[in-house]
Automatic annotation (TrEMBL):
The chain crosses the membrane at residues 6-28, 40-59, 84-109, 121-145, 175-199. GO terms for molecular function: structural molecule activity. It comes from Nothoprocta ornata. The lineage of its organism: Eukaryota, Metazoa, Chordata, Craniata, Vertebrata. This is CLD34 protein. The gene is Cldn34. Keywords: Cell junction, Cell membrane, Membrane, Tight junction, Transmembrane, Transmembrane helix.
């Protein structure tokens, strides 16, 4: 057990990283657009996520009330930029890889704490560590790509039905990107800790 402290930390960090990856994927605030035409987008701010775009409007509601309107991206719409499609696919893959990594890590830790001296433990930590790292890289790519798009104020040619301008006056990073960055750090650390496991030479002593 004394040799598995880092692997316990790997499981804890991997769990938090996987949860944060899931939260990041679900948030609409990847890119925050500031627009000058407030006829429809009453607040002057729109949130561009990887699944939909949302904004607050006072149209079609009673005075003094506001309503959030969202348009979901349909599959293979030509106006959706590549970084958003990449984020959709890679974050789904990251979730699956992270889940496999957590399962392998739990199984290895279970064997250690039950006193099962089996070199297969090393293989499970190896699988868990590799999948944690792959999961982290799958989050890193879309997070970095979308951050680049924000930094360069890149436009999106929304169709008229979205009531969105093709270019914002300015844009900034939404909450989803820093959450994704933290998820990347935690997943990569988790993978590194899992891979550092060394099967004890005197298993009977160390498994007590």
């Amino acid at each position: 057990v004394r040799r598995s402290h880092l692997q316990i930390a790997a499981f804890a960090l991997g769990t938090v990283g996987w949860i944060m990856c899931t939260i990041s994927m679900g948030l609409v605030g990847w890119r925050v657009w500031h627009v000058d035409n407030t006829t429809v987008i009453s607040s002057g701010i729109a949130w561009v996520g990887i699944w939909k775009v949302c904004f607050i409007s006072y149209l079609h509601v009673s005075p003094g009330y506001e309503e959030q309107f969202c348009h979901k991206f349909k599959a293979f719409e030509s106006f959706v930029p590549h970084e958003i499609y990449a984020a959709q696919g890679l974050l789904l893959i990251a979730m699956i890889l992270g889940l496999v990594a957590l399962t392998a890590t739990i199984f290895a830790l279970r064997n250690i704490y039950m006193g099962i001296a089996n070199k297969a433990i090393t293989h499970f930590f190896l699988v868990g560590g590799c999948f944690f790292i792959f999961s982290g890289l799958c989050v890193l790519i879309p997070v970095s790509w979308n951050f680049y798009s924000v930094a360069h104020n890149e436009s999106i040619a929304f169709p008229p039905s979205y009531h969105m301008p093709s270019s914002p006056v300015s844009q900034e990073v939404g909450a989803a990107i820093p959450i994704g960055i933290i998820a990347v750090i935690l997943l990569l650390l988790s993978g590194t800790f899992s891979l550092s496991y060394v099967f004890p030479a005197i298993s009977n002593t160390n498994m007590q």
